[in-house]
Amino acid sequence: METTAVPGTAPQQVTTALRLSPVVCFAMEQAGIPLIQSLEIRHHGLTPLTDLQLTVQLSSGLGETVRLALSDLYPGESVSLGVIDYPLALQKLRQVDESERARWEWRLTSGGNIVSAGSQDVDVLAFNHWPGSRVTPMLMAAYVLPNHPAVGTLLLSIRERLQALTHNPALDGYQSRSLSRTTAMVQAVYDTIQASGLTYAEVPASFEAAGQKVRLPDRLMQDKVGCCLDISLLVAACFEQMGLHPLIAMIEGHAFVGVWLVEDRFPEGVVDDAARIRTAMALGHLLMCDSSAMVDARRPTLGQAVTIAQGHLADDAGFRYVLDLRAVRLAGYRPMPLRMATLTDVAAVVLPMDRDPVPVVDPATPAVAPAVAPNVDGTRARLLRWQEKLLDLSLRNRLLNFPMPPRAAVLLDVPDLARLEARLAADVTFELLPPPAIPGEDQRDATLAKQRMPTEEWQSLLLEDLGKGVLHAAMGDEALMRTLKGLDRETRAAFEESGVHSLYLACGFLRWYESLQADKARFAPLLLYPVTVAFDRGTRRYTVRRQSEEPVANITLVEKMRRDFDVDLSALLTPESDDSGLDLARLLRQVREAVRQMPRWDVAEQAAIGQFSFTKFLMWRDLAANAATLLANPVVRHLASPEQGGFEQAVAAVSAETLDADLPPEAIPCVVDADSTQMAAIASALAGRNFVLQGPPGTGKSQTITNMVAALVFQGKSVLFVSEKMAALDVVHRRLQEVGLGDFCLELHSHKSNKRAVVESFMTTLRRADRVGSVPWESRSRELQTLRARLNELTQALHRPQPVGWTFHQAVARLVGVAAAPEVRFAMPGVGGLTADTYRTMVDQVAEFAVRAQAVGTVATNVWQHCRAADWTAAGDEVLQDRLADVLIALAAVEQAVIPLAKALNVRPGGSTATLKAWSDLARSLAVAAVPAGALMEPDWLAHERRAHAYVAAQRDHDRRRAELASRWEVAFLASDISGHRQQFRKAQDAWPVVSDILAWQAKRALGTSCREPDQSTADMVADLEGIARLQADAAALAQDRTWLWERLDGLWGGNSESLGEAERLLTLAAIAAAVVEPFRAAGLVTAQELMAVA
């Protein structure tokens, strides 16, 4: 809102910016949307404003007057207020049936006087008018009325339709966790609305921006007519009352409804990215259907309405937003209180029973939240929360919910899992190929051929290839190569980042369901072999090979089954072996026996290659098994304790300042360089202190850890070094190897960390211990102690206070700090015997001198600057008085002598001795020769002088070049038009060699007798012609400068190049005169008329 000027006040003395809502409605008041959004007052005047009061009022009696007392406002200050609560007359606002215009009015007073005022129109909307984009889109949730009696009447018909579709009329939301159940409820709503007899009405133009009056459920069911927004709000209310989570989509010129098929929501409430909606629909999590299709007389099916909605969402340009009603409700946007007249009976909808249920959509159900930790207080509860954060038993975990067909994985077509496991155990390298080709001349598609080929023949073909070390994938060649390339790249990146191998070949899957009502099967791998995938450049194919680690069971699945279904799959943890590896057939049979009581559950004998991660689960299992041991550790107990306070330790931190005095070198055995702070950290670790070592990059943290590990090993301790990033482990391991301690490191983070490598590492360490002899550690430590003592003595000498009160280090630092100060040399006897007291006395004296020197000012301009008297005496003062009297007499005589000179120069007499000397110099200059008047009259004569000298130099250079050319060319030719000759010679230079010689001969011939040296070369002639052209071009400019200089010198110069010396002499005299006159002109000691007379 702009400020309105008030008569009698200074314009723009106060500017007030008041942000007011341009629209007011009952729903906004109920939702708590502020009407006065901000206030800012700026004071541009010169006097303070006191007793400030802001008054705001909404006309038409819709609200009371609000008065705010503000603090005093001083010139240049501003005050900003946030949201201002403006209470409305709710009862009156609730009774508004048609939109009307009102007006915001406000004024700012100071001491009762109005200093600024303003007003703004506002639209007061009807009770059922949705404001559109003029307010937040979340306000639309207020017009969704799930508790409206008309909605309750509709639900009766919806239950009947649901009974007919599923034989179960319960409106139980997402309790069944079944997609078919949710879809059936959506179908029941769709059929009920379609059979209700509603007729479609066109929406107002640009309704999504300006809003519209909404037909509430009772009006909609009575009039049997509604637009897309009316129907969407009604359907959303039905969904919400049924326990489902509805959505409302807004596109350009249209609105339609949607619903979550799984219990999910968009947390932000308003989604402005259509791609997210399309993705959720593609996953089967979300269903959007066109509202107008529900009331179309042609009675389209739900599937057709979904297709129409998908078309709307495909247009990103027309998409506005989607409102997630569940998220908006959680944000506090509740339905409006009902305001109805006496509700007439709304007849139940009679539904025709001529339509079958829609096919069940089959998306992936969202993740199930992990089990809630028991409510345990204190430290153990916090540890338990840490533990549960590591446990992912949701459907996001691929170990529990492996998609079939898999995404970013390779499903293998294996006829015999036991034989595959045996070949893996034998370390066979497999070649990965697409489905096998059909023998003979058959050119059919492999998938079609598999369907038509007898099962025994197809299995025999796959078994034959399996024996040859060939595995076939259930995908085409191009997709297989693309997937394997992605797996190889992602596995390498994951290993380089964390050091954890994540690529496995899964043998066998458990097919399980979340509940008895769930219709979506989940697949979880049972046994996983760590494998590597490599590209063979010879065959241009990928190969898969088992790593040296043992296969691992899906322990995450074991825990999930134990927690949620009381199913014991512990047989996976202790698999039995046979002659060729694990007894996989027996293991699968044990799993089948464990799940035989679970309806529809089964074991799928399938294999797949994909990425799986066990690391967090293993950490969870360690925490669960060792909670008491962990809490016995003081550091863990302190971190887990809810009590706030410092961490007390029995071991004090080692100080870097006293490190050398407290500990001998042999107490801190370091293998790489370390400074004092790093040594202190190492010593603290050796003493058993717990601490956090931190510092920016490049400060030597890895060096410190290397020394710490070596020193602890020297003490006979074992060190476990853990890092989130493998790069940190590699750096420390490399440093330990460089100092010869690599054999004592057990490399568990490397790709070589398998059982065989660990055993060989132990053997290497034992052999190294036998080979290494004793090291003269004590003698080297004593040598180091001696060197350290010398260095410490130097350090102590640098920082030892001297009698003057400074250390040598402080003195050097002081000298460096004043290096830029001017050097003053003076004798200072006894400087070597200065004490701190003497130094302070000298400093005080210098400070006192500085104060007095400031009173004197600059010596060079002081009237007593030439006085050499060191002391003042009374007799000296009398002598000075007498001599000053003689000086005054002498000055009077000088002034008398100046009068004739002033008359001769026609200037005012008087001034200093320097002034008199200057006038005398001027007189002598004028006596020698005449001086140009401009030197005396023009303040910028120096610029003229520079231009004049530049001309003289250019003229002399021109004359020199002309004389040189005149020695080879006729003088008349130098002033003639030579453009034709130059063009002839250019043609000769550009022509072919033979032609060039002919044209050059013709050009020389055309010169005739103008050239005095016709035998010179073509290149020399061309150079001379170019020089003549430049000479002619310079002549015009020099003529202008010559005329200008003649005018500046008042005609005292002849104006030709032969008399340049005379011009330079006049310029010298003029410079002397200008230098004499300029100070007097600048100081105002001489007038322009006086200078004119002198000139």
Strand tally is: 27
Unreliable residue runs: 1-11, 341-346, 350-376, 439-445
Fraction of residues in β-strands: 5-15%
Q: Regarding CATH, which class of the largest domain? A: Alpha Beta
Query: Which structural class matches the secondary elements?
Result: alpha+beta
How many domain regions?
5
- The number of helical runs is 39
What would the CATH topology of the largest domain be?
C8orf32 fold
Helix content: 40-55%
Average pLDDT, rounded to a whole number, is 80
User: Which CATH architecture of the largest domain?
Assistant: Roll
Outline the biggest β-sheet.
8 strands, mixed
How large, in whole angstroms, is the Cα Rg? 51 Å
- Dominant shape: extended
Determine the N-to-C terminus distance.
70 Å
Describe this structure in words.
The protein is α+β, with helices and mostly antiparallel strands and 1095 residues long. It has 5 domains: 14-124, Immunoglobulins (Immunoglobulin-like); 129-330, C8orf32 fold (Roll); 400-439 and 454-613, no CATH class; 652-768, no CATH class; 915-1092, no CATH class. The strands form 7 sheets. Strands 18, 19, 20, 21, 22, 23, 24 and 27 form an 8-stranded mixed sheet that branches. Strand 4 and strand 5 (66-70) form a beta hairpin. Helix 3 packs across helix 7 (228-241). The longest helix has 32 residues, at 874-905.
